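Entry for the shared binder. Reason: the reviewer on the internal report wants the predicted structure included alongside the sequence.
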Amino acid sequence: MENDPLNSKPDFVHATGLRRGALRLPAVLMQGIGHTAPATAILLTLPITVTYAGVAAPLAYLLAFVAVLMLGIGLTQLARHLPSAGGYYTYVSRTVHPRAGFLTAWLFFLYTPVAPAFSLAMMGFVLESSLRAEYNVVFPWWLFLLLGTGFTFGVTYGGIEISAAALVVLGLLEIGIVVLLAAWGLFVPGPGGVNLSAFNPANALGDPNLFSLGVVFSIFALTGWEGVVPLAEESANPRRVVPQALVGTVLIMGVFLVFTAWGILTGWGTHDLQALTDTKDKPPFELPLILAQRYWGPGWLLVLFALLNSMAAVSVATSLVSTRMWYAMARSGSLPSWMAVVHSTHRTPVNAVAFQTFLTLLVGLGLGFWIGPDQEFFLMGEVLTLALALIYTAGNLGVFLYYWRERRGEFRPLWHAFFPLVSSVAVFGVAYLSVVAWPPPPLRYAPFIVIGWLGLGVAVLVLMKVLGHEKWLLLAGAATQEVAARVDPDPSGLSA
């Protein structure tokens, strides 16, 4: 079997230079929460959710939380046995096929690697618009993008402990500010007072079709929970910590979204939702700022700070995911070996971090100056929604195949078949409903971007097959198994 690619590995696949065991559960948990961007998730999506679900918007978030929890439980089933920095690339390569894993990573390029770019561009736009409107101060959006990119580079280059500490501080700040705003709404309610009408199913049945739209778009607010997976090799006892952080992120974010949606709606007044849904003259991000101005006067800047803070956190978290994924791919031979170079002191994949920084500036400034930073955010948000539908479904297929083919004795129909099937239907519902209305340009181009990018990835695979250069690709699954054993050799996952 001398020519068998699965029995031939490049030298750099045998050692990982990442700092193993550096992170405990709280730090890994905050990576998932930061990746989900709590403040942005609720403050930018609530007006849209209310448009569809009305007063029952908190109930829509609750049902979306249940759907995402199914996704999270499914992924924990793979995280228990395959701890690796590669994330979905690793899981799909190992459980479905290395080619499918490559295409999953190829699609991921439309998600985490570009997320810091459009997130920082959007928050620069929010800062510029808000300061100009309130104080007639001009702070250009691109300057915030440059500062945010510099901050992200410094944190991710400096080591995983520094990154984790930054995520803990940033995450707690944004959660605390938004929870305070929601609690204020419950203590000082608007028209309608404090009531539980938001959780009355009868309020969702007035127009079931519109309410279902509210549910599926609420799923988008929970995107990012899977961001804990690539930190497996830097986590202590990853077979236990990563699954706990996955489920913990979904649980915390689910409770957060339901509570804050209820509190903010109560503050606006459940009998006066027109002001919340009227976005003709005001972009969605201005609505929570208006509520904060009503309550806190000049203190409304806290909410603006929470939004900016949220995007700084998501920039760090998504950069960690993309750099670890590239590192894992390079280590397995799927990318050039220079992407696997690790700093001798900081133990970070420095070349991957540098490339991520370059990509953030290229995409953020390029698209921002071309179509505008706000349109960049909405376009790329639509693109990643479509890409994630495919990525999540590939992971769900991997869950079923892995337990059905390799761990039949552990196969549980509810966890390994029903949950993956239902959650896949849910995310494809999000993708379908996001394009069926055929939105105006530039959002209209999102499906073509995803289809074109996926087609290019398939072309790369075909070309490599024809040229006989698939060896690097077919190494992925075997490399994953070896890395999983090195990262946490205890198959029970019960080691301290």
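Summary line for the report: DSSP finds 19 helices and no strands in the chain.
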